[in-house]
Amino acid sequence: MKVDIHFFPQNIEDLLLKEKIVVVVDVLRASTSIATAIYNGAREVVPVLSVAEAGKIAINTGGSVVLGGERNGVKIEGFHVGNSPREYTEEIVKGKTVVFSSTNGAVALVKTKFAKYSLIGSFANVSLVADFLLQQNQDFMIICAGKQHAFCIEDTVCAGMIIRKVADAAPIEPTDAAVASLALYENFGHSILEMLQSSEHGLFLQEIGFGNDLEVCAAVDSLPVLPVYANNAIHAWKVDNKPLLT
Predict the structure, then answer these.
(1) Domains in the chain: how many in total?
(2) What is the CATH number of the domain that holds 124?
(3) Chain segment 148-187, per-residue pLDDT in tens
(4) How large a percentage of the chain has pLDDT more than 70?
(5) Is 58 inside a domain boundary?
(6) Helix axes of 211-218 and 30-39: crossing angle, nearest 10 degrees
(7) 147: helix, coil or strand?
(8) Which residues contact 7 (CB under 8 A, 6 or more apart)?
(9) Domain range holding 86?
(10) How far apart are CA 105 and CA 209, in angstroms?
């Protein structure tokens, strides 16, 4: 399997992802929040780029909508929840459509709308992501959401963890970028929470009052769900018509 990684999505042409297998990683915090919402019974998560688009979908969908998202880490005015995974409880999201907009993660996700498979990856579901990639046994690409067009260590370390789990079970042909992510994972993978706490984005979240989110986002394989983005919405990957929940 050929394995590539992009450290942020802005330089990717979405049409070039057609028929490719892609994993989108936004550890802090969109990937973790989306996985939490799906695990807690959200009917679907619809990523959008703008607040206006979110509002239009909410009006057209009716009362079974939860508006979720942030700008610069803080809940968007008028939305029900922000981008903290602790907000996406079963009580809030079960049976609902979550319309989601965020500074980084939603941008990366929408870029992958033409992909064959677009998986949402995080530390919280890293083994399920790797297992899916091994089952497909095809080339794949990991797209890190980054932070406002810049490199993020936490996304790259998570990407390296996914690649390591795949490489431990099957031969891979990594690009230089993939090799770099593996090296970062080998260096920081033994202390994920500490890495998040000392990262630029982690420090920012602590400053604005979301330090507790870092523990949730650092919990490896805590969410046995595989969210997949297709036809403009995210659902749990299904096997024999049943959601992939272990």
Answers:
(1) 1
(2) 3.90.1560.10
(3) 889 999 999 999 999 999 999 999 999 999 999 999 999 9
(4) 96
(5) yes
(6) 70
(7) coil
(8) 144, 146, 151, 152, 155, 156, 177
(9) 2-229
(10) 20
Sign of CA dihedral 237, 224, 99, 22: negative
Task: Name residues whose C-beta falls within 8 Å of residue 69's C-beta, 6 or more positions apart in sequence.
Answer: 51, 54, 75, 76, 79, 82, 83, 99, 100, 101, 102, 106
| Calculated CA dihedral for residues 235, 205, 192, 147, nearest 10 degrees | 70
pLDDT at 149: 86
Burial of residue 231, with CB atoms counted within 10 A of its CB: 0-12 exposed, 13-18 middle, 19 or more buried: exposed
pLDDT digits (tens, 9 = 90+) for 124-152: 999 999 999 999 999 999 999 999 889 99
Position 210 in a domain: yes
* Cα separation values, 185 from 57, 143, 158, Å: 39, 16, 7
Tokens of 246: 């272990």
Q: What tokens appear for 154 in the block?
A: 């936490």
Give pLDDT, residue 246.
Answer: 44
pLDDT band at 62 (very low <50, low <70, confident <90, very high): confident
Which pair of tokens denotes residue 201?
């984005």
Classify residue 246: in a domain, yes or no.
no
State yes or no: cis peptide before 29, omega within 30 of 0: yes
Q: The tokens of 237 are what?
A: 């990957």
Tell me the one-letter amino acid at 180: A
Does residue 236 form part of some domain? no
